[in-house]
Amino acid sequence: MVNKVAPGFLGSVLSHFPEGLVVVSGSSGKSTTTKMLVTILEAHGKRIFTNPSTANISQGLTSALLERASLTGRIDADLAVLEMDEGHGALLSPQFQARMVVLTNVMTDQIDRFHDTRKVLAMLDTIASRASERLVLNGDDALLDSLAADVNDAVARFGVSSEVFAALPRGLGYAATTDARDTAGTLVTGVAGRSATIRWDGADHEVTLPARGVHYAVDAAAAIAAARELLGTSFDPAVAVAAVSAMPAVFGRGEVVTVRGKQVEFVLVQNPASFQLNVDELEEGLDQVLVAMGSDVADPSYFWPVDASRIGRARIVSGSKANELALQLIYQGVQVDDIEPNLPAALDRFLALPEPASGIKTIVFTADSMRRTRTHLGLAE
Question: Using the 8-state DSSP alphabet, how is residue 177 labeled?
Fold first, then answer.
């Protein structure tokens, strides 16, 4: 309603932060990168306005602003760091001027909305054009790197070393990438579970990640690269490393919660690449796994390129696409004990199981099932 009654509200508020606006966008990694960047900046004493990761479209952004804005339409913060959905960010771009834009990657994602990577690239190009000082992008993504041609002097890149790059899955969203080890100023040089080595200014730094996997290390590199540019000589490597290393998981993304007296790990998968990367990081031989796919997946065959065999055994497969997902898992050699499309019923049965013989209870879900799971279990976002 606010956007209709006062269409200039969002742009007016965003243009009045003393140290400007930072926009984070891309196909994957927006939420974690945003949270990491905010954490680093706050550790350096900055007052930051940011949006919840579920509020990255125009209505959500406006609601987040309304909650903090004074009667004069101002927010008491030094700068804003906002995650923006690719499509909504492009639509909103005429209303804001960003000091910096951070772009994570371009993948085949949300095929019901963004059926073509070139379409996504065009949206991100529109958002990138609003950066007045700096564009920070994933130098391993050739599509993103093409956006830097006209503003190369104002670009900072993050990426991974050739050894780390070689381990990334092909054909699942990384096919368009090229090794950026010669151009990235912030480089992931090693990853083992929740431990990563990130190099900048010629020095290696050991960082603890909020969740397992190379994709979280890349998010950390993106956040550090952005913070280095924003803070300049005030950037303190030790402060940045300590801030990221102490950060909890962004909800649903490797988050471990206690529900009904049971420890449960949530693993969010949003596209084939994130599905593969997250499944690859699961502990082998997990005794209790629930896998759920919801209505956010328009066509379950989208996930068939993923090798989910590491799951090993799924106690329950649930969600509105439970039958299609179970078929994929069975074909890939996963033992499926039960199929229960009703997610609340499946969750109740799963949590009622006795303690696992190995590992902890693990729920692998898509975004729709994540939201429904959190609602059913009474978990705040």
Answer: B
pLDDT band at 370 (very low <50, low <70, confident <90, very high): very high
Whose tokens are 């390129």? That residue is 305
Beta bridge partners of 48: 79
Q: Where are the alpha helices (DSSP H) in the chain?
A: 2-5, 9-14, 30-43, 58-68, 86-92, 117-128, 142-145, 162-166, 214-231, 237-245, 272-280, 322-331, 343-352, 367-377
Cα–Cα distance, 76 to 64 (Å, whole number): 14
For residue 190, the tally of other CB atoms under 10 A from its CB is 17
Predicted local confidence at residue 164, as pLDDT: 87
Q: How many CB atoms sit inside 10 A of residue 179's CB?
A: 16
265 contacts 255 by C-beta, under 8 angstroms? yes
Q: Please, which pLDDT band fits residue 93 given cuts at 50, 70 and 90?
A: confident
DSSP string, 219-279: HHHHHHHHHHHHHGGG--HHHHHHHHHTPPPPTTEEEEEEETTEEEEEEE--SHHHHHHHH
**Does residue 161 carry a pLDDT above 70?**
yes
Q: Residues 250-276: pLDDT tens digits?
A: 877 788 999 999 999 999 998 888 899
Count CB-CB contacts under 10 A for residue 87. 17
Among 67-76, 77-86, 120-129, 198-207, the minimum mean pLDDT is found in 67-76
Short-list 46, 52, 170, 27, CA closest to 109: 27
CA distance 190 to 203: 13
Delineate the domains of the chain, giving CATH numbers in brackets: 2-245 (3.40.1190.10), 253-376 (3.90.190.20)
